[in-house]
Design goal:
By secondary structure, the protein is mainly α. Helices cover 68% and strands 0% of the residues. The chain has 4 helices and no strands.
Length: 99
Amino acid sequence: MTLLYVQVTQIDLQREYARARERLARLHPMPPLPLVPSTKPLMKDGIQQITLSVASTCHLLEMYRRQLTNPVLRRTLTRLANRLSKVSAELRRLPASSN
């Protein structure tokens, strides 16, 4: 019955949804990426540090991808995230310290 009095179009819904996502993105900014200081050389735990860095990158990429409204860019980032997940899985198979 309400729709007889108020005309809501798909464009109106999409616009309001995009606005709500933008407000949400401002409320929850992306966290900074924890990086290993460049002055500190990678020791025996080099594989572990690389694995942590790749995992952090995957997480940040996913958080950024979820904020996008462009479907082409979202698909591209999804493919990139899948590749990084495969790299992360390969890194986990490597021994923790290799000399």
